[in-house]
Specification:
Layout: E1 5-10, H1 18-33, E2 38-43, E3 47-49, E4 52-53, H2 61-70, H3 75-87, H4 89-105, E5 110-113, E6 116-119, H5 121-133, E7 140-148, H6 153-163, E8 168-173, H7 177-183, E9 190-192, E10 212-217, H8 223-236, E11 240-243, H9 248-260, H10 268-271, H11 279-287, E12 289-294, H12 297-306, E13 310-313, H13 317-326, E14 332-333, H14 339-346, H15 353-375
Length: 381
């Protein structure tokens, strides 16, 4: 019997390393459960590696896409996909041709979207393209541990059409479940779950090198929250260092924040760690601190998985939802907070790692169960 072949879709090569962390955690789960399977990574921005992109074939690609994807459908659908193509033509072109090339090489039994904030405008056109591409091949499609973000009317429309496709057999939400089911009442195949990266400590080792008492994870927005924190840490006399999740935008913004907070340029290297370029480095950064205050959610997820007390700022609803599910709702705020109050809250963190690992396990087991159900006999043993 032919071995299983799975297309694993996600932001595999994103410079924001929370996305590769999530993809690689799911990949390790699939490889452990199906060691003989062919797991084919597919980057949803059309990357072929860090900093490299698929070179799309020349030609009237949008006309080809529309002929395959929407010739027989209503004008509004055609108009919606056209608007998405026009706004980001190069990315949609890369993804379309990269997927076409992979489908020439492999016969896929399953498509698994690895999770993250996929239900948003940035991915709506891509998801629509991919579901339509597999519409006639009987390939089952699973969206696992996804979240939601900003959606326009066009984005909602395209996602609604894609998610109602009969080959989409399972959709699980790590956040925004109520909002999702109100927008997309996809009956019988939508459940609530947890972020799969909560189990990342089973795949990665913590660092033995402790860098400082406090780690401050920076982001490319909300200077009104970050600059007071930096100044408070400077006044406190405590040992601390700042870091980012790898985004070049975050890294440059972080330098600007430190300068604005009063740190001389020649001293920046004493306070800001080099931009991480691998998942392993991000894990080493997070586990090198005794406590964490961070803005990017997957820094906080890594911290929870390894048992590092963490506090988050809720610039996005998903962060508050994460702490609610973890059973530590006081660990997140959307407002400015003084360092003393943060320390008091962190002292209440307790032993939450078992809960985080259990949530990661439940996410893992649900994914395996869905795939076993739809892969049939090849999903056993």
């Amino acid at each position: 019997m032919r071995p299983v072949t799975i297309l694993l879709a996600g932001e595999f090569y994103s410079e924001n390393l929370g996305d590769p962390l999530l993809c690689r955690t799911v990949e390790s789960i699939l490889k452990e459960r199906w060691p003989q399977a062919t797991i084919v990574p597919f980057d949803l921005t059309g990357r072929t590696g860090p900093g490299s992109f698929f070179e799309a074939a020349p030609g009237k690609w949008s006309e080809i896409l529309l002929k395959k994807a929407s010739d027989r459908f209503l004008y509004y659908r055609r108009a919606a996909i056209l608007r998405f193509l026009a706004e980001d033509k190069a990315r949609h072109q890369r993804v379309w041709y990269a997927l076409k090339e992979l489908r020439r090489q492999y016969r896929f039994d399953m498509v698994v979207f690895a999770g993250g904030s996929l239900f948003m405008d940035y991915f709506a056109g891509i998801i629509y393209e991919m579901v339509r591409a597999f519409a006639f091949s009987q390939t089952k499609i699973v969206f696992h541990a996804c979240g939601m973000s900003t959606l326009s009317q066009d984005g909602e429309y395209l996602l609604a059409r894609a998610l109602r496709d009969r080959h989409v057999v399972s959709i699980s939400l790590r956040d925004s479940y109520d909002r999702f089911v109100s927008l997309f009442p996809v009956r019988g195949k939508t459940i609530e779950t947890f972020d799969t990266a909560l189990g990342c400590s089973l795949s990665y080792a913590p660092t033995e090198k402790k860098r400082a008492e406090f780690g401050l994870g920076l982001i490319d927005r909300r200077e009104d929250l970050q600059i007071p924190l930096i100044r408070a840490l400077l006044r406190s006399g405590k040992s601390w260092m700042a870091f980012t999740n790898g985004s070049p935008y975050d890294q440059e913004y972080g330098k600007k924040l430190l300068l604005q907070a009063g740190i001389p340029e020649e001293e920046l290297a004493q306070y800001l760690l080099p931009r991480p370029t691998t998942v392993e480095t991000l894990v080493a950064y997070v586990t090198g601190f005794e406590k964490l205050v961070a803005f990017r959610m997957h820094s906080q997820i890594v911290a929870a998985s390894f048992g590092v007390p963490s506090f988050g700022f809720g610039w996005d609803d998903k962060i508050g939802a994460f702490y609610e599910k973890l059973g530590f709702p006081q660990g997140c705020t959307g407002e400015s907070m003084d360092l003393g109050s943060i320390e008091e809250i962190l002292s209440q963190y307790g032993e939450l790692r078992p809960r985080a690992l259990e949530q990661g396990r439940q996410s893992r087991e649900y994914l395996i169960g869905v795939l076993e159900k739809h892969l049939g006999r090849r999903g056993r043993g």
